[in-house]
Amino acid sequence: MQRLTIVEIAELAGVSTATVSRVLNGKRDVNEQTRRRIQQIIERYGFTPHALARSLSLKKTNNLGVIIPHTADYLFSSPYFAELIRGMGEYANRRSYRLILSTTSEERSSSEVYHGLLYGAVDGLLVLDVRVGDERVLWLKEAGIPFALVGQDPKAPSVSFVDSDNESGAYQATKYLIELGHEEIFLVNGPQEHWVSQSREQGFRRALKEAGLSPAGIVYGPFTVEAGFASAQEILKRAGSDFGLLAASDLQAFGASCALKQLGLEVGREASIIGFDDVPWAQYFDPPLTTVRQPIFQIGQEAARALIGQVESPDSEPIRSVLPTQLIVRQSTRSPDG
Amino acid sequence: MQRLTIVEIAELAGVSTATVSRVLNGKRDVNEQTRRRIQQIIERYGFTPHALARSLSLKKTNNLGVIIPHTADYLFSSPYFAELIRGMGEYANRRSYRLILSTTSEERSSSEVYHGLLYGAVDGLLVLDVRVGDERVLWLKEAGIPFALVGQDPKAPSVSFVDSDNESGAYQATKYLIELGHEEIFLVNGPQEHWVSQSREQGFRRALKEAGLSPAGIVYGPFTVEAGFASAQEILKRAGSDFGLLAASDLQAFGASCALKQLGLEVGREASIIGFDDVPWAQYFDPPLTTVRQPIFQIGQEAARALIGQVESPDSEPIRSVLPTQLIVRQSTRSPDG
DNA sequence: GCCCCAATCGTAATCGCTTCCACAGGGGGC
DNA sequence: GCCCCCTGTGGAAGCGATTACGATTGGGGC
């Protein structure tokens, strides 16, 4: 466990620590011979500079914090989350950054978590589960901490964020449901205070309006199977069997689908259901789920990229990136020519 | 962004940094009055000690590293993973530790990732996706880095690990399948080099042996939907319709179930399928999935606890913890009195 | 009044690394 | 031959905390 320090390497090489440091960081101003000699010694002893000491002196940790609000517990139950983290981690690691995960508990706000656990330990923060007028962006801006949002907050004008084109995705999906000729069209939405929900609702409404229709109903709830199940039950009380349903997540679509089946309705015959996300197993649903694909992995990568951009050049323009969504038609919607 | 340091707090309070530090860390040897005065100033200015500086001087980072091998990409597609991380994070945060996530890429081994990215940045490592004779436990032991395994490596005698009782879970499930009177019983297992797979297979075989039966077939593969689907297709080539199938994950069970349906077999009538994990939406499967429940969240917590134990007292006995599994009967297995 | 000890607090070293600044030596321009 | 500059190197001051060690004070026991 007793590892060498730069001092010992310097002694072994008969030079000063300054020179060793220069070699480690690939700086100029080192004679090619000494450089090689030092490199050999470093390699022979398997020396690695101590990350902490390096960070302290550089005032740079190469750590990115991911704060998951306790209200976003559902994130964990969602494949969305894992894929997002994977994307963020992949890009971060590629750029020699690490990801620090931190969940806020009931008792502690994000800002307390930051000051208690994360201050000095991260270069910036990745903010998930953004809601409209999110208090977190306020204190982050005020505190001058670099950050990037996954999702948008229209009330926060010039901040870095990455989002997918929810409006368009919902629009396409709704339009498709209309084309299938369903009498009534419902939306099982996410939590109302999230911009992601609001923009999907906008797309939903736009498609209906263009067709001269109005929404048969909109319900809000978390992005979970349970919520989808409950919402569908609610809807089924006041709907016929010929309806189209757009869910704001594949999980909700899954839950809704189960609710229909329980009542003996065959999904993809009379009623149609469309999900959102295209989680890896959506194609294995019964029936395979028609859904709006989001490039989740890529969103994670982009978010990390945006944050690292902010970290490395704080005065640069914020990155505001909206990635495309795409309707994937499978069998949970009825056949167009049926 | 310009935050106060302990020096400035000391000046404001008219004391030395030593005293401020003593107050911050709740040490003795500080007059009650001065303590209060300093505390007030700290609060007024919202001072938080710089985590890095603190760590450097304490030689303690309060960071736990989680290394996810690139070969375990499937982990991310599994709800198991998110739940595990959630458990680890919850316990870690409660003990004022942070979780650092690091995925190894194709080009870099765990040990390279550690030395390049994590050395000096973490107090210990949480090791996922353990295989039998895992090289990682070797270099970790050699390097003297505290660590804890999620899952077991029977070849590594005295290390901390947390696992669930896979043998017993598989035994119970298999026994249940036998009781249902199925002619043939299959196992869709995980990767063969994992102890988790081997021990489940042991439970599977034990149950069969006790009943005087022998396995109809065992196939190995990753814990994914795709693998379950493929394995079931393989099995269906050489099986009748009256068989029981135990899968090593809910995802595999899900995939297998889809394969059966594609051939018009009704799962839970003739053939029975049992999963493993009891992921949150297993009950919403069609049909609701009979499965072996693992306490995943708790495993995460325990693993963090074991690691922190090793970190804080390296000479303490390793924690070796096996958590119970439980068969949850739903409708993907046929009714006992049918 | 002297000595000793407990309580309280400060000085300075330390953690391991980066980097500013100074300095030595050699070569080229004049 | 003198001066300047450029290259290569080392000394030492940071980064922001913790803490070993020492110093000061005041009070109690004699």
Describe, in plain words, how this protein is organized in 3D:
The structure is a homodimer. Chain A has helices at about 5-15, 15-25, 30-45, 50-60, 75, 80-95, 110-120, 135-145, 165-180, 195-210, 225-235, 250-260, 295-310; strands at about 65-70, 100-105, 125, 145-150, 160-165, 185-190, 215-220, 245, 270-275, 290-295, 320-325, 325-330. Chain A is an alpha/beta fold and about 350 residues long. A six-stranded parallel sheet of chain A has the order 2-1-3-4-5-11, sandwiched between helices. Chain A is elongated. At the A-B interface, helix 4, helix 6, strand 2, helix 7 and helix 12 of A face helix 4, helix 6, strand 2, helix 7 and helix 12 of B. Chain A binds a DNA duplex (30 and 30 nucleotides) through helix 2 and helix 4.
The total of helices of chain A stands at 13
Shape of chain A: elongated
| Oligomerization category of the chains in this entry | homodimer
Q: For the largest beta sheet of chain A, what order do the strands appear in spatially?
A: 2-1-3-4-5-11
Q: How far apart are the first and last residues' alpha carbons of chain A, in Å?
A: 70 Å
Structural class of chain A: alpha/beta
What fraction of residues of chain A sit in β-strands?
A: 15-25%
Instruction: Output the radius of gyration of chain A.
Output: 25 Å
The biggest beta sheet of chain A is recorded as: 6 strands, parallel
Largest interface: A-B, 59 and 59 residues
What average pLDDT do the residues of chain A reach? 92
Q: Percent helix among the residues of chain A?
A: 40-55%
Instruction: List segments of chain A where confidence is low: pLDDT < 50 over at least 5 consecutive residues.
Output: none
